[in-house]
Amino acid sequence: MQPLNAPPRDPAPSRTAYRIHRLWLTPMFRAMLRIGLPVVAVLASVGWYFSNPQNIENLQIKAADIRRSIQERPEFMVKLMAIDGASGEIAEDIRQIVPLDFPVSSFDLDLTGIRNRIEELDAVARVDLRIRPGGILQVRVRERVPAVVWRTDQGLDLLDYTGSRVASIGSRADRMDLPLLAGAGVKDAVPEALALLATAAPVAGRIRGLVRMGERRWTLVLDRGQSILLPEAQPIQALEQIMALQQAQDLLARDIVAVDMRNENRPTLRMAESAIEELRRIKGLGAGEQ
């Protein structure tokens, strides 16, 4: 009970309480207390925890254990490698350059690196890799198809239609089914060589090979010591003219050593020595009769 002589109680808040109340009504202050203060406390705790190197090391070990436990789950393990589209020799080469120790986690497989290593094989044109259900690394290989035999100073190489090397062979007899090319710069001109061989189809049985001369033009070599010297520019058109004469007049059945088409304005026929001697004899008989 309030004494009779006591001053009446002032219901208004004190100055300090009033200021605190006004500050609490400020949205920024309330946000700082509700969000900022807990965040600062959390950051301070985290900073204190990570200030100890031992805590960092323990956390890294724990994270590595968790990651490894996930990666080594059975559904992520690769148990074997299956190779499709490759011959036995190429498949063996692939297994040698990709020495995987199965089982291995799919997370540890560098598929891009494996693909690049396999595509370094001369006989491989393209490789597709994927991990099939059941833990199988599927390797689909598209091999290069040999199109020609290229004779070099080092031996005999098989090239595909683009001029890419496929493999080496020990003897021409190993691939008599493929045309023979010789000379420097052949790898860059295989498509043109194949087009020339297709143009020379009427005498295909007589073709012995194509020789690249000076890395700029071709000479078609036939049996019986005959050859067709083609120009640097438009060799296919020049060979078409020869084939037309062959079909119309059986040109190459005559006693001719070479057909020189290098000068389009003056094609030249080189006769055999026996034909020249016979021509001289005929001319001599004609002169005697006169």
Gross morphology:
elongated
CATH class of the largest domain: Alpha Beta
**How many separate helices?**
8
Could you tell me the CATH topology label of the largest domain. Answer: Rossmann fold
> What is the correct CATH architecture of the largest domain?
3-Layer(aba) Sandwich
Distance between the termini: 172 Å
Major sheet size, sense and barrel closure: 9 strands, mixed
Strand sequence of the main sheet, in spatial order?
8-7-6-9-10-11-12-13-14
- Rg from Cα: 43 Å
Number of extended strands: 14
> Share of helix among residues?
25-40%
Textual characterization of the structure:
By secondary structure, the protein is α/β, with parallel strands linked by helices. The chain has two domains: 74-143, Roll (Ubiquitin-like (UB roll)); 149-281, Rossmann fold (3-Layer(aba) Sandwich), CATH 3.40.50. It is 39% helix and 24% strand. It contains eight helices and 14 strands. The chain has helices at 15-24, 27-50, 53-71, 88-97, 111-119, 190-199, 235-249, 273-289; strands at 77-78, 80-84, 104-105, 124-132, 136-143, 148-152, 155-159, 165-169, 180-182, 207-213, 217-222, 227-229, 256-260, 268-271. The strands form three sheets. The chain has a nine-stranded mixed β-sheet. Strands 2-5-4 form a three-stranded mixed β-sheet, with helices on one face. A two-stranded antiparallel sheet has the order 1-3. The model has no long low-confidence stretch (mean pLDDT 85).
Question: What attributes does this structure have?
Answer:
14 strands; 290 residues
Structure at a glance:
The protein is an alpha/beta fold and 290 residues long. It is 39% helix and 24% strand.
